[in-house]
Backbone:
């Protein structure tokens, strides 16, 4: 479906999510299509951080651990995230990084399957997921084996030796969406527990962890949850697995942390999956982003996401089809997350050149351009204009400059 300017304007005027854009700090003229890497800043974040610093910390000092509920922030924010990912109250905590939470989930799952020795993933998974698996394997002296197979071979590799399967629901490069319910069902038939990485799902697509009977899940706080750079991540543990024992037994996971007992005694419920002292300021920023999403209708968000991505694909084919872009993301809407990815021989240079044209996307090695589509603040008109600017970069070969050829440390 091709749109004329009047139709695009009408889509934006009728968008039930349009009011959310004004709640984000986005400069005029910028088209930000990198929310799958770092979400935009909610306007409320700065004020809430300022209050936390000047009032809760500055005035309340240490009394704010109770007076401002600092000590229970991981559980409180976790319960809010639970509403976004189809979990129940008391099944999610906001804490630590995604990598650390993957380690917690893997070791907790292994504690529930002590007679099994394989942790399984796909070879194209986001690297940190597999790195954590490899670290556990090395620490175990090889007793636990880390196995990563080709994506299409994952389900066939499930057997009675596999303790846990770690998969990402929405692939970080292509945006391909895995069928969480079906994969979990197939794994459970073999007695395998499943950990889902929701880093590109939470806040981007509808997620129903309990509907899929998921065992564990982890996710990122700084992408579609808009929690800010390095925001705390989250960890979901299904209530039926709350007796599991993660290896990281820190003091905030203790049943009574302020009695300062010499031996570890795990807390009940999701609290036992906490570790160190909560990063209060990071949690304040994360909560501002999560609160915005809790007000949004996830069905409307997903509907708009698919319309934005379909428009992007069609505009790229029409306006940039001659320039050698190869679509990496699935054409079938239900298999597509909230991003569009293309392969191109000069992908890195194009992404860098686009910054001068006020379009911020990102690059993933070896040759992928990613455009994250965040429905809360992107308009249909932004998609059309972004593609026009991509076309201009290609027509003028603005990407063909020496300063764009040397890759930066962070891409």
Residues:
């Amino acid at each position: 479906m091709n749109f004329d300017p009047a139709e695009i304007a009408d889509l934006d005027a009728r968008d039930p999510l349009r009011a959310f854009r004004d709640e984000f700090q986005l400069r005029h003229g910028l088209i930000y299509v990198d929310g799958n890497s770092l979400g935009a800043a909610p306007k409320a974040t700065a004020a809430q951080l300022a209050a936390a610093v000047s009032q809760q910390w500055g005035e309340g000092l240490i009394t704010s651990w109770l007076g401002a509920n600092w000590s229970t922030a991981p559980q409180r924010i976790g319960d809010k995230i639970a509403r976004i990912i189809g979990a129940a109250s008391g099944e999610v905590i906001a804490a630590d990084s995604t990598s650390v939470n993957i380690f917690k989930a893997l070791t907790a799952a292994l504690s529930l399957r002590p007679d099994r020795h394989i942790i399984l993933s796909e070879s194209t998974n986001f690297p940190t997921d597999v790195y954590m698996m490899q670290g556990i394997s090395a620490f175990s002296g090889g007793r636990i084996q880390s196995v990563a197979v080709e994506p299409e071979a994952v389900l066939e590799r499930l057997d009675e030796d596999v303790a846990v399967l770690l998969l990402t629901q929405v692939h970080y490069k292509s945006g391909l969406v895995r069928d969480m319910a079906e994969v979990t069902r197939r794994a459970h038939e073999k007695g395998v527990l499943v950990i889902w990485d929701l880093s590109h799902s939470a806040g981007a697509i509808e997620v129903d962890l309990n509907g899929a009977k998921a065992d564990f899940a982890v996710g990122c706080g700084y992408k579609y949850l808009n929690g800010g750079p390095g925001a705390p991540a989250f960890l979901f543990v299904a209530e039926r697995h709350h007796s599991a024992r993660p290896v990281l037994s820190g003091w905030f996971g203790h049943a009574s942390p302020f009695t300062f007992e010499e031996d570890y005694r795990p807390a009940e419920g999701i609290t036992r999956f906490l570790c160190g002292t909560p990063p209060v300021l990071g949690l304040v920023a994360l909560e501002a982003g999560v609160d915005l999403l809790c007000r949004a209708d996830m069905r409307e968000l997903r509907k708009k996401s698919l319309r934005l991505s379909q428009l992007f694909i069609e505009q790229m084919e029409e306006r940039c089809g001659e320039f050698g872009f190869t679509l990496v993301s699935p054409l079938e809407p239900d298999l597509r997350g909230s991003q569009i990815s293309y392969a191109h021989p000069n992908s890195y240079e194009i992404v860098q050149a686009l910054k001068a044209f006020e379009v911020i996307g990102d690059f993933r090695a070896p040759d992928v351009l990613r455009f994250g589509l965040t429905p809360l603040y992107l308009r249909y008109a932004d998609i059309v204009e972004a593609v026009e600017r991509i076309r201009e970069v290609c027509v003028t070969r603005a990407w063909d400059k020496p300063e764009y050829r040397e890759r930066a440390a962070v891409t």
Summary: The chain has a mean pLDDT of 97. The radius of gyration is 22 Å. The longest strand covers residues 162-168.
